[in-house]
Amino acid sequence: MTDTSSAPNTPPRHGTGAAVQASLARRRRKQIALQACGIGAISIAFLMLFILVASLVSSGYQAFTQTHVTLDVFVDPEEVREERLPRGGFDDVLAASLARMLPDVDTSDRATLRQVERILSNGAQFALRDMVVADPSLIGQTIEITVPVSDPYDQLNKGLIDRETPEENRRLKDEEIAYFDALKESGAISKPFNFGLFTNADSRFPELAGLKGALVGSFWALLTCFVISFPLGIGAAIYLEEFAPKNRVSDFIEVNINNLAAVPSVVFGLLALSVFIGWFGLPRSAPFVGGLTLALMTMPTIIIATRAALKSVPPSIREAALGLGASRQQVVFQHVLPLAMPGILTGTIIGLAQALGETAPLLLIGMNAFITSAASSPFDSATALPTQIFIWADSPERGFVSRTSAAILVLLGFLVTMNAIAIFLRQRFERKW
Amino acid sequence: MNDMTKFDRFVGLNETKISAQGVNVFYGDTHAVKDVSVEIAERAVTAFIGPSGCGKSTFLRCLNRMNDTIDGARVEGQIHLDGEDIYDPKVDPVQLRAKVGMVFQKPNPFPKSIYDNVAYGPRIHGLARNKADLDEIVEKSLRRAAIWDEVKDRLDAPGTGLSGGQQQRLCIARAVATEPEVLLMDEPCSALDPIATAQVEELIDELKRNVSVVIVTHSMQQAARVSQKTAFFHLGTLVEYGDTGQIFTNPKDPRTEAYITGRIG
Amino acid sequence: MTSLAFFVLLLACVVGYWINRRGAQAIRADGQRLHSLASYHGLFSALMILVPVLTLILLWLVLQGPVIDRLTMAALPEGALDGLDSGGLQLVLAEIKSISRGQIFGTPEDWKIAAAEHHVALKARSSALMLGAVIALAAAIMLFARSRVGAEFRARQGVERIVSGLMIFCSTVAIFTTVGIVAALVFETGKFLSLVPLREFLFGLNWEPQIPIREDQIAASGAFGWVPVMLGTLVITVVALTFAVPVGLLSAIYLNEFAPQRLRSVAKPILEILAGVPTVVYGFFAILVVAPAIRSLGTSLGIDVSPNTALAAGSVMGVMLIPFISSFADDALSAVPRALRDGALALGATRAETMLNVLFPAALPGIVGGILLAVSRAIGETMIVVMAAGLIAKLTVNPLDSVTTVTVQIVTLLIGDTSFDNPKTLAAFALGMMLFLVTLVINIFALRIVRKYREAYD
Question: C114: Cβ–Cβ under 8 A, 6 or more apart, which residues?
């Protein structure tokens, strides 16, 4: 360097500051535009979730109550005879009793009686029959029973049928609405919590349809899924993470697991249908087969979560145990695995939550059958919660719309609970190293 | 060499470029920089030295408000650039950073071509009216960073493909392309080998002709070689600040002496 | 009977464990030094029993059904099955089985009742045989394991070898699953292609899978061309992505760079909720809210909109994909080293410029990988389209028209009857094969991009 360079050469250009100043407004506008787009995008996502939940709640909350009618039934010995039980004219008995509660009804006219009878749910006569069969001494007596009303009247009571609609477009005629109003006036109508939604199995009549069969089916399927996928997943993850030599085979297994996690669920359904049912001859519609299929789908999730949990246990723990002369398996099963357990359980619960909502493979193995009793073993025919939702969503009766929403709310309730447990486990037990 | 250093020191003592008064920096609950006041001279090299974790890098990042980008960081006190408060709400950090450039510890070229790396600053700030202008700026900046001869035939090659030393000089070229008045360098040589370090140091010497350079360094030899003023930081406080020669030969504070003689660090 | 077998297995394991442990403890009490802990001797016995006996039970359970069925059919009187095709045979078998369970409809022929009794007897014999085999095998292994107990016996190594074997078996289940999928699809597709020529399936422009009503009607020509089904899938996928990609990317950009910490900590869980909603729920959402909304909007604009438009199904699928794309993009953006971001900011770039010019391009490979995975999801998504898209395959790209998809066809063809010999059922497997191949290629490609990208910044 020469001395000349020490003279203040090239003075700082002041062009930079001015140019930056000039560009600032435009650049700030651009930034604001980008931020606005981002906020817009987030809002769309939130709005969608809001509409989703709001529409489900607004159409589903009605299904958590059910309109009932309380009536004094004279068990007419002419219609119901002890020696012919369980057969008997229970429907006529109910219709006659109900007609007596209404003014201006010609109880001798069979057509009118049929019309009155339709106020009651189809299940009412069976409820009465079961009472009488259990206690035949009721014949000839007058008993008070509370039974569900049929779907159109339930809709009417919940305000879902517009009285202003012209009569010919309405599901209930003026006369029928008048009957109901009279019953309501007399205080016979009540709207208690709909326990039937949880204690009844499926039915063709919306007012009787419940989720018990689906809940039981889902329980068996998830249990099977857990019993199979949990040990298999953990075993595979431990082997791949702690023992497997890094070679082509373990690479291939790894690629395989990652791909399985992304295979469309309906393909697993095809596998189950063709292999489990077609080749192995396992029963159709059985929660066991559903659980088996779900287990294959859940396993990759559990493997990936378990490997992550094992990886997060620091090597120092392993070295410490190895240094004391423990074998590699003792190290893993006595030290690493217990420390990784919270992470593994979190991943498992999340995997099971996914499995609980899975629908397509269950449809293919026939878990969308119409089954009116709850399964007593995983090999009985059953539906599951999501397939039940699918069946109800497909049903034409109006009453099933709100039942479907209610069933979805129940399903979402389970999912939220499971995820909350997973989050709790993660926060409570996961330690930072 | 000695004559020139004296002259530079003379110039530097006359004009203050940046003046910081009572600066405190907090990261959440951590008090990282404690009541630091310092005057940084124009067209001179100022070195910040001190053991790691002493707050020198944090303080450096206050000078172009890079701490704004860290969640939970809070800066108190006053920093003036050419008499203007840079933490004034009216000041746009974008504008400030165009004036106060920065080079980081690890070379961080964008995953773009060498040309695009250097042209990025001028492009976003609208410093070039046309392609020819931009070409000129790019060439000049690369020349100033003493890397032009090595890359002039492959300006379209990705900047990430260069060697470490070349990458760092590319980053310097990228920083000077916007014609900053101050250049902050955060341990620019810590990731480089000795030869590349020598090249960068030579470059710093060259740059101070029209830029004020503030350099954070771990190496006291480097501070002694390139700087005219030196500030010694310890545990978040500014212990001593003065001419480089004085700090290294005749430190006033016993802690400075202990550090320079290698007893803390 | 089956549960009894499992109970025997459990009991044998416990007893084996206990006997071996006692044996080892006795040796120790004699003052000899054991190579392995006594509990390892116990575990050795339990595992030695568990693995083969459990395999025996499972194999028996899987195989006994088909074997018994075949024996039952073989024992039928001469001529009872004359002139029946495979469907007819299955019906007879199903009837015999339902009689054997005590469900009698109408008045079955005497030979069927006899066959049902034979079936019941076979089943009982099979169960008894299985129980006997289980007990014999368990006892034999228990004796063998007990004979190995000794001071020098390396029980721990034995246990660890068995455990290793079990873990290796677990790892190969993933391979077996893939093999099972491929085998099932190839096998059934092969049967399909023997009924419908490959060229017709791949290039035919008509998709009208009919149940053959008369014998000579099987696979009426031109009815199994998958082109319109594929086109429908593409239309819905494109609609879904047009909606999901911009919204997902922009929300990721916003959350990653601009959102205040508090919003971010609320928004991310909400997006996770959106991602966790089962697809059957989205399907119901589509028919309950979105389709009617689109329809009434169309009516008010004077456009004729069909009730199950590709637009409705596609846009709801888009909502489903938003969190998927957003979280992938967010991860990719977060993986870009902080140094690059600092570098851009230090040059005086605004945050928007930093994002658009530096972070986003740097994260692009990861983002593209995520979008590809989203494409594969959209193609394979089933419930939304089953509920909200159409059933009739039309050769159209109009999103306001009703189209059908590969997955819809698979489900509708397989719901209800499933005999494996008519082209209608088999067509579903052929479609499944195409679905599997297409998504597999996309997945492998996408996973490779994502992996490469992660390696570049690790």
Answer: none
